[in-house]
Structures are given as structure tokens and as C-alpha cells.
Amino acid sequence: MLKYTLLLLMLFFLNTAIAGEWSGYASVESRYFFKDPLDPRQSDSNISVAFQPEYWNDWDNGRQSFTFIPFIRLDNQDPERSHGDIRELFWIKAANTWELRAGIGKVFWGVAESKHLVDIINQTDLVENNDGEDKLGQPMLNFASIRDWGTVDLFILPGFRERTFPGPEGRLRTIPNIDTSQALYESSSEEKHIDYAVRWSHTLGEWDIGLAHFYGTSREPALLPGTDSSGNPVFIPRYDLINQTSIDIQATLESWLLKLEVIHRTGQGPDINATVAGIEYTFYDIYESGTDLGIVSEYLYDDRVTNPSVHPPVIFQNDIMLGLRIALNDTQSSEALIGMIADLDSDEVFYNIEASRRLGEQWKLNLEYRAFRSSPIKDDHILLDLAYHF
Fold first, then answer.
1. Does some domain include residue 388?
2. How far is the C-alpha of 323 from the C-alpha of 338, rounded, in Å?
3. What is the rounded CA–CA span in Å between residue 162 and residue 218?
4. 277 is in which domain, residue-wise?
5. Which of 313-334 are b and which e, b meaning 16 or more Cβ less than 10 Å from the residue's Cβ?
6. Distance of CA 296 to CAs 113, 186, 256, 259, 293, Å?
7. In angstroms, rounded to a whole number, what is the distance separating the alpha carbons of residues 283 and 281?
8. What percentage of residues in the chain have a pLDDT greater than 90?
């Protein structure tokens, strides 16, 4: 059924492409790693190119629309990072009190900066970036009921997407590497298992609240020790069935933002409880320069046992995040996020810088720097990405 639905959507796209609007970007990216790799198959640098066009069209006085966003990346070092995906391919029908969406889509839940605990609909595209922000498109049927007392979203999610992982030649990966060809499932339906989710969201004055429940295949796999076809040690991902209940809250109180994400998950060994709670205060137009400066602080807690063959691996169990968000509000849209996450139970510290600036009307330069201190991770690196937007 899913493949016929996608075929119909593609035929519709081909029939209406002339009337719609095109946008998107093409980019070239370079990463350089400051330390020698732990595996001789890895390199200290890589270059890749990416292309993501976007097509959009609406009709019926704006009550119906169609979106198509494919994506492709080619990497010179890691074959697993050379990949393509349909990020979005969906039709929307909107009315005054309801909305229906069908196809492949992306849904984001969450309010925290350091980690999005409640964001569970889409699978993480981990070969794109280790920050977890990039997502694979998820086949879905989504019905939203929009009322004065809030919006209720119902999701039917056919077709599970496995998480992408760097290959043996890639960096920012586990040692040994993860062999996705041996993926295991708790459900006998494997990737054909149908998942379900429901979410209620509402705004009460300065407070934005979301309450959700998900049942289906976990987007986070546990990692079992094993061997590949040549007898080399590898990790084998196992995807269990879970129930996850979550709440996310954000309060906007003038210059203050208060943020909270909480989850309770069953189905992967002992129950999991995790929280991200934080505050952000913004100084606007400092000394009438137009620059805004935000101070961010978050606390991350996760009570799961550190056993990757039972629970999915977790990095932040008792940590604090401190950061600065800078927006120059200039014609080049220059902005930066500078932060660190410190483990309160050890000396491990993670440093992160993300900055971007427009170059002219259609070019954009992005920079990322990530470093790990007192950590077994040896993949400190800098990333430069130059994108042309059309």
C-alpha cells in the first residue's frame, strides 16, 4: 500500500511541477580531524557535496498543498555517508478545524537546545551529523484536530527507517564499527511494523505545552557485540518495541525562556526516565549595536544503565550545558552558538561551536567546531560548509 501511495504522489508531482515553486541548495563540505584516527581505515579529512532541491505547490485557495524535498550527499571517504533520501513527499488538506497530511514527512517535537528527548517521529540521519539534528523522511498518515482547547495530532507510521551509521572508513563512529547489514528487530514484522503516536499541544498565555505518547519500533537501537562476515568484531543494532510518554513545556517570560522535556520509556530492559531542563536569557540590542546575546543553561539527566546491549547508548546522564547564542542581526544574518557540556560525574567535557553567515544574496558559509576533553572519543574536528541557495 505504501509504495502505491508514493507512486501516486510522484505522478501528481510530475503533473504539477510546472505550476509550482522551486527552491533549495547545493553545498560543498570539508571536515578536518585534529587527531590521528583509532582505525587505520579512517582518514584525517574528507570532502563531500550535497544537493537538496525543494518543490512546493498549493491550490484550492490554499487549502491543499504538495511538497517534495529529495536529498543526496556524495562523500569521498565514507561510502556509507554517500546516500540519498526523500526528506519530504506529502500532500496536505487543511480546513478550519482539522488538517490531513499523507506521504513522507518530517515532524519536530521539543524545546531544549542540547538534546531533543521527546523528538521521536523521524529517524536520525547520523551519517549527516553527529548532533542528531538531521532526520530521515518518515512515511506517515497524520490527522490533526484543531480546537480552542488545543490541537490533537494522530499519527499512523508505516515503514520503519533504520538509523544511518558511518562505515568503517568514516569518523565520529564507535570502535568497532556498527554493521547495519545484521540489524535485528523485536517485532517479527521487522521494518514493516506499523507504529502509532498521539500528541496534544496547546498555548496557555506564555506557556506552550505538548503531551505525547508513542508506541512502535525504537528509533534508538541497542548495540550487541558480534562479528562481520570476515570475523572482525562489530556492533549489531537491535530495534526493540517501546512505549514512550513525554511532555515538553516552554514558557516565554519577556527576555526569559524556561524549557523542560521529560520522557518515560518502557520496552528496552528496565524503564527509562530522562529529563532536560533549562533556562535562556537574552540581552537585546546590546549598547544599541543591534546585537542580541543569549545565555543558555540546561541540565541533562538519564537514569538508564550504561549497558549498550540492553539500552541504547547514552552520553549525557548527569551533565550541565552552558552556552552563548549570538545574533548580530546584520544584513548577512551572522549568528553563532558557543557551548559546552560537562559531565558532573567525571572530567569529560564536550565543546561545540556553530556559526553561519550569508555571503551575498544566495551563498551561506557554515562553520562547526567540536572537541572532546578527557573522553575516549578522539574525533575533534572542524567543518566548513559553503552552500548556494536558489
1. no
2. 5
3. 10
4. 2-381
5. ebebbebbbebebebeeeeeeb
6. 8, 39, 10, 10, 10
7. 7
8. 90
Which cell numbers hold the place of 218? Answer: 525504537
**What are 66-123's pLDDT values in tens digits?**
999 999 999 999 999 999 999 999 999 999 999 999 999 999 999 999 999 999 999 9
Instruction: Report which residue type is found at 62.
Output: G
Which letter does DSSP use for residue 4 in this model? H
Among 136, 229, 137, 240, which Cα is nearest to 182's? Answer: 229
User: How far, in whole angstroms, is CA 91 from its chain's centroid?
Assistant: 22
**pLDDT, tens digit (0-9, with 9 covering 90-100), for 62-82:** 999 999 999 999 999 999 999
User: Cell numbers 518502557 correspond to what residue?
Assistant: 266
> Using CA atoms, how far apart are residues 52 and 71, in angstroms rounded to an integer?
5
Q: Is residue 158 part of a domain?
A: yes
389 in a domain, yes or no? no
H helices present in the chain, as ranges: 2-16
**Residue 51: phi, psi to the nearest 5?**
-140, 125
**Secondary structure of 35-83 as H, E, C letters:** CCCCCCCCCCEEEEEEEEEEEEEEECCCCEEEEEEEEEEEECCCHHHCE
Distance in Å from the first CA to the final CA of the chain? 35
Q: Give CA–CA dist 350/353, Å, rounded.
A: 10
Q: How far apart are CA 150 and CA 179, in angstroms?
A: 43
Asked whether residue 373 is domain-assigned, the answer is yes
CATH number for 21:
2.40.160.10
Note whether 93 and 64 are within 8 A (CB): yes
CA distances from 256 to 147, 250, 285, 287, 290 (A): 28, 10, 15, 19, 19
Task: Return phi, psi of residue 4, to 5°.
Answer: -70, -35
What does the chain come to in residues? 390
Task: Quote the CA–CA distance of 87 and 25 in Å, as a whole number.
Answer: 14
Q: Which residues pair with 22 in a beta bridge?
A: 55
Looking at the structure of the chain, the number of domains it has is 1
User: How would you list the strands of the sheet with 222-227, edge to edge?
Assistant: 184-185, 233-239, 222-227
Does the pLDDT value for residue 154 go beyond 50?
yes
Q: Indicate yes or no: pTM above 0.70.
A: yes
Under 8 Å between Cβ of 89 and 124 = no
